[in-house]
Amino acid sequence: MAEELVRMEHISKFFGRVQALNDVTFAVREREIVGLLGDNGAGKSTLIKILSGALTADSGDIYIHGHKVDIRNTTDAIAHGIETIYQDSALVTQLSIARNLFLGREPVKEPRFLNRMDQEAMNAAASRLLKQVGIKKDIPPTTPVSALSGGERQAVAIARAMYFESELIILDEPTNNLGVEETQGVLRFVRSARDSGHSCIFIAHNIYHVFQVVDRIVVLRRGRKVADDIDPKKTTIEEVEKIITGLVEVPQNNAA
Fold first, then answer.
1. Do 2 and 48 form a contact (C-beta atoms < 8 A)?
2. How far apart are CA 121 and CA 106, in angstroms?
3. Do 12 and 18 form a contact (C-beta atoms < 8 A)?
4. Which of 110, 144, 161, 220 has the CB geometry, 3.0–4.6 Å to 83, for a possible disulfide?
């Protein structure tokens, strides 16, 4: 079995008097795609925002490769190899594909003290990456993101995470508002990320999409983890839906 890449232990989070997360322990192994499921208000977004540095936990610890880390902001998360792709892709639509791929991490030409962006290097890398993530159309890297379809924007966001060799890619509702073909493209990108050595956390309301790509399913309900190690090959969508809604309770040793 692969080693654990990330482990979140005993994570709790309050918003005022509302407890969004209650003593949640959650792990992702190397080269693993984990589906994180739960109804609205289950705590999924809060958990991944803590891992991605957008929020801080009130209690609990985070380990990467077995070493305790302090993730206080998104810069810390990125430094630890964690990239998050939200449903709106978190791209700057007015800028080009190439600029979005390198946003905040642009290569510079020599001499470096002049701080001139290396546009040629960014364009070449962008062209290569677009093909790598499965975009078949010949889209110039200078194309503004505003001219791209929803699926193409998600491809750019995934390419950015893959280029900077992120070990863990978090996808938060990446197939929302996409057509059938674009959705299948995003799902292919997720599989290719695993094949390239990355791990993924895949969050989606559409459980059918989750079943197509994940290795393991974790379910949250009302801020607690109620199921872990659900194998999508050995269960059904209907059974998982019952766990999400509370119609079926999972034995405690499967939710440890």
1. no
2. 10
3. no
4. 161
The 10s digit of each residue's pLDDT in 57-110 is 999 999 999 999 999 999 999 999 998 887 656 788 899 999 998 887 888 888
**DSSP state letter for 162:** H
* Cα distance between residue 55 and residue 78, in whole Å: 14
- pLDDT tens digits for 199-249? 999 998 889 999 999 999 999 999 999 999 999 999 999 999 999 998 887
In whole angstroms, what is the distance from residue 218 CA to residue 216 CA? 7
Distances (CA, A) of 96 to 10, 78, 120: 41, 22, 13
Strand blocks (E) in 92-178? 168-172
- Longest Cα pair distance anywhere in the chain, in angstroms? 64
Secondary structure class of 134 (helix, strand, coil): coil
Structure tokens at 180: 């059938």
Per domain, the residue ranges of the chain are 4-92+168-254
CB 198 within 8 A of CB 167: yes
User: What is the architecture, at CATH level 2, of domain 4-92+168-254?
Assistant: 3-Layer(aba) Sandwich (3.40)
Residues 248, 161: Cα–Cα separation, whole Å? 37
CA atoms of 62 and 79, how far apart (whole Å): 14
Select from 44, 75, 59 the least CA-distant residue to 172. Answer: 44
DSSP state letters, 171-200: EESTTTT--HHHHHHHHHHHHHHHHTT-EE
